[in-house]
Amino acid sequence: MRTNGYEKEVAWCRNIPPIEDCTAETFFEEYVWCVLNAGMKEQVARKIYERFMEHKDPSAIKHLGKRAAIEQGMKKDIQWLGELKCANDKIEYLQSLPYIGKITKYHLARNIGIDCVKPDRHLVRLAEKFGFDTPYQMCGEIQKTFSDERLGTIDLVLWRYCNLTSGDTP
Length: 170
Prior knowledge:
single chain, 170 residues, mainly alpha
């Protein structure tokens, strides 16, 4: 699988430990990342994320709803991770967290070790273009050829392509 300069990102995704091994620190970092990315271009969210993570200073986050969610996460990350690990439906549990919605829950799930596909607008369009009912179905079909790849890695590679081409599909 070609990475076009994103080898570290692909390697990171390939090597995400399973949810059972997720630490509170990793959980919190990925929670913040996903909250900041919700409804925002990744490149913009990255700058805000880096400013926030440097000193864990909520004032770096100008969006009041996202700031409040992250402040709550700063206090409850250990509790949330414990509840998540005990949850029967881990992905659904994630949606109960502040500022995690029906799409963002898959982003957070993938980033903390649950192998899944995020049905965001880029992957939905791509799946439709190639005749699949869902991004999950599309990534599953690709996985048949690249059997050693996680669904989340396939998702990431396709998403990155769409992100770099302004959402244009091949």
